[in-house]
Amino acid sequence: MEKSEVAAVLEEIADLMEIKGDNPFRVRSFRNGARAVESLAGDLVQRVEEGKLEEVPGIGETLAAVITELVRTGKSSRLEELRRAVPEGLRDLITVPGLGPKKAQAIYQQLGLSTLEALEQACQEGKVAALKGFGKRTEEKILAGIAYRKTVEGRFLLAVGLAAAVPLKEHLKAGPAVKRVEIAGSLRRWKETIKDVDLVAAVKKPEEAVALMERFVRWEGVQEVIARGETKTSVRLEGGLQADLRVVAEEAFPFALQYFTGSKEHNTELRGLAKEKGLKLNEYGLFKVDSEERVPCRDEAAVYKALGLDFIPPELREAQGEIELARERKLPELVEFGDLRGVVHAHTSASDGVATLEEMAEAARAMGFEYLGITDHSQSAGYAGGLKEEAVLKQHREIDRLNARLKGFRIFKGIESDIRSDGSLDYPPEVLDRFDLVIASIHSGFNLPVEEQTARVIKAMEDPHTTFLAHPTGRLLLQRDGFALHMEKVLEAAGKLGVAVEINAHPLRLDLDWRWGGFARAHGVKTSINPDAHAVAGIEDMRYGAGIARKAGFTARQVVNTYSIKEFEKFIRARRGMGVVNGAREGT
Ligand code: DGT
Ligand code: CA
Ligand code: ZN
């Protein structure tokens, strides 16, 4: 069982306990436990087997027992008991964003509703707004939540897709007679969420396709075979994700891979372009229309070349103008994970992380990084153990000690400062002065009207202490949309002010959304690929961020954590000199 699955079970237990009116402290202990598991470094199963679960902050005896049962049996008797005690309809209601356990229960009891359809209708008829403690705004929020649920129905996180698809691909590759296997579809394009896994493979002889399909359905992660054929087989993997394998002849492989990578819109444009050139493109090949003669291509790059285009990296294939750029030979040279030299935005056990400062630094260094911007939460973040002034000073002394010891590596003194409701940062200026860098971040007041929210964010960026803007929309993929924000205005301001807008690399965030990449780059906005790591393992998430930065079209020079220590220092210092409010100062 994955950590995220264990965490989800603990969350569900907390929800159901809350519905049943259980002690709020016990409910909270399950929620904290879920977070602790999710951000746990190292192997969960191993920790269970070694009986070391209770050493984890936030996991006590009760939780350890639940987690141990889950890891050993894949089940939780406590959850099953709660599920029996709480009606299914009610359980479904609490999954609507904007509808917590308490409100769900009120609706269930007072209106007798137990399906989302009935709830939607009741909202449309104004019946929910009329309930005590609800009102028009809550009703609108519930409707938006139901609409959101519909848009994410059946989709999975990119990280979940990769975790399932990469080992499956390796399994297929290791088979006899298989010539090529690649992941295609939205996963190859690094979409932030995916519907299914598309795999394309090539064999030499048709009978080898049958053997490959057999190997596919026998993969240990396959739960159910949905459809089985000679050219296409579909299975359901553990966790519910569907995977399709298409097997083609070797000479058709580049065309099939290109076709099934998509996007559909990109392919439509590409076919139009082929037509203009008297060619026909489909998943089987490229043909001259007049003679039906094949245009042989040995790989995807050759397909694009035959159409007069530079090779378009899969991440860019979203019909966002990339074909035009490829024709003009103006595609950006995309940043790569290997270009990254520093880690910015990481938490320690001083706030809500699970590793010590030293452990985080050692881990970043061991991964080949040259610097680490440590950014625990700021003082008003009570929800996350935010650092009071004294704790800041203590951490800074520790950073000085570590920097003296760690050769060829540098820890920057940073903070993830909450943006307060009035747009100010979370410490007085003399404390802010002590940091090398500040990540400004919204963690509360999600419901402000869009104008106010925009002004709040821009005000925070105008403070010369602010170096980075964190996860600009606060969205959690598949769980909730971000808050309302005029992103154009925010990005324009960031470009003018020299504030880097992070691409938060946590698989649930991937925020800044890649769709803003073109706009951001046109306005001179720099980004930073930030893991928002709460544990050593979280640093690895930078891989997802790198994929999203590529998808957003960023080059290495537009990503500040590709800089050397010297360049990075220059960037953060220059930024200090660029603020515009209260006492903008010279860079030091
Ligand atoms: P997803 O699965 O919703 O995350 O997104 P995709 O892009 O992986 O979509 P999917 O799995 O339906 O199809 C994979 C690729 O196959 C798609 O990007 C382009 C190609 N494709 C599928 N159906 C069609 C179609 O009807 N027309 C065209 N032109 N291409 C298609
Ligand atoms: Ca797909
Ligand atoms: Zn953070």
Which homologous superfamily in CATH is the superfamily of the largest domain?
Metal-dependent hydrolases
Query: Bound compounds, please?
Result: 2'-deoxyguanosine-5'-triphosphate, calcium ion, zinc ion
Net shape = globular
CATH fold-level topology of the largest domain: TIM Barrel
Number of domains: 5
- How many DSSP E strands? 16
* Cα-to-Cα separation, first versus last residue: 50 Å
Biggest sheet, spatial arrangement of strands? 10-11-12-13-14-15-16
Structural class: alpha/beta
Task: Give a description of the structure.
With 588 residues, the chain is of the alpha/beta class. It has 5 domains: 1-81, DNA polymerase beta, N-terminal domain-like (DNA polymerase, domain 1, Orthogonal Bundle); 87-153, DNA polymerase, domain 1, CATH 1.10.150.20; 155-249, Beta Polymerase, domain 2, CATH 3.30.460; 262-331, Beta Polymerase, domain 3; 337-576, Metal-dependent hydrolases (TIM Barrel, Alpha-Beta Barrel). Helices cover 43% and strands 14% of the residues. The chain contains 24 helices and 16 strands. The strands form 4 sheets. The protein has a 7-stranded parallel β-sheet with strand order 10-11-12-13-14-15-16. Strands 2-4-7-6-5 form a 5-stranded mixed β-sheet, with helices on both faces. The longest helix has 17 residues, at 3-19. The two termini are 50 Å apart. The model is unreliable at 580-588 (pLDDT under 50). Residues 345, 347, 416, 532 line the site of zinc ion.
